[in-house]
Amino acid sequence: MRMAIPHELVTELQAAGYYPQLAGTMIVESLFGETIESHFVHIDTHVDLDSIHRHVTAFAITPTRLLIAHVDDDPAPRPLGQPPRAMTSSEAVELSEISTVLIGRTFEKPAAFEPGQDPVEVSLTLGWGSTTRIDTFPETCADPQCDADHGYGGSLLSEDLTLRVSAQAEGPEAVSRAQTFALDLRRASFRAVHGSR
């Protein structure tokens, strides 16, 4: 696969083993001459009773944008003997538009934690205003005998993309790469808003 993307990204797409040319081509189409400063490839597999569904998401940080290329199985049934089809989507998000870079990490034996210790799981939630989730709940008061309607409370959350990488499922190297990418993205987003400090 000859592309204008870093060799490490090409290798990770090939290692994911799920239509690497498609995901790589979508990243290349979105570069517009920029360089890739950091990247991450996430493969996810779901097993149903009668089928296996896979999809891959490739992330790339350029000096100005976060590029996201996604390849998924086409869910439409195919006639017997027909080859499978894949659906693709790509998005380019200005780094200055990213409002949320939430990094969640799970550590084993937290009482013995030392700086530099790798987590066993990393989750990354990104928000840039494309998708908003509303969580609501009924309001209550402190009186246990009260049966009045106190209305509803809630929160409005920007949650455009969430991914989770686990050492048990993907291996410790994938967790380490996910953490590095998440921190790179947080740094790039901060610099895009506040300038290089």
List the helices and strands and how they pair.
Elements: H1 7-16, H2 20-31, E1 38-47, E2 52-61, E3 65-73, E4 86-94, E5 100-106, E6 121-127, E7 132-138, E8 152-158, E9 161-166, H3 167-170, H4 172-194
Antiparallel strand pairs: 1-2, 2-3, 3-4, 5-6, 6-9, 7-8
Summary keywords:
197 residues; 4 helices; three-stranded antiparallel sheet; alpha+beta; globular
Question: Would you give an account of this structure?
Answer:
Helices cover 25% and strands 37% of the residues. By secondary structure, it is of the alpha+beta class. A four-stranded antiparallel β-sheet has the order 1-2-3-4. The longest helix is centred in the last third of the chain and has 23 residues, at 172-194. It is globular.
Low-confidence stretches: none
Structural class estimated from helices and strands: alpha+beta
| Straight-line distance between termini | 37 Å
Number of strands: 9
Relative helix content:
10-25%
Largest sheet: 4 strands, antiparallel
* Strands ordered across the widest β-sheet: 1-2-3-4
Radius of gyration: 20 Å
Order of helices and strands: HHEEEEEEEEEHH
How many H/I helices?
Answer: 4
Query: Mean pLDDT, nearest integer?
Result: 86
Strand-residue proportion: 35-45%
The shape, in one word, is: globular
Could you provide a short overview of the structure?
With 197 residues, this protein is α+β, with helices and mostly antiparallel strands. It contains 4 helices and 9 strands.
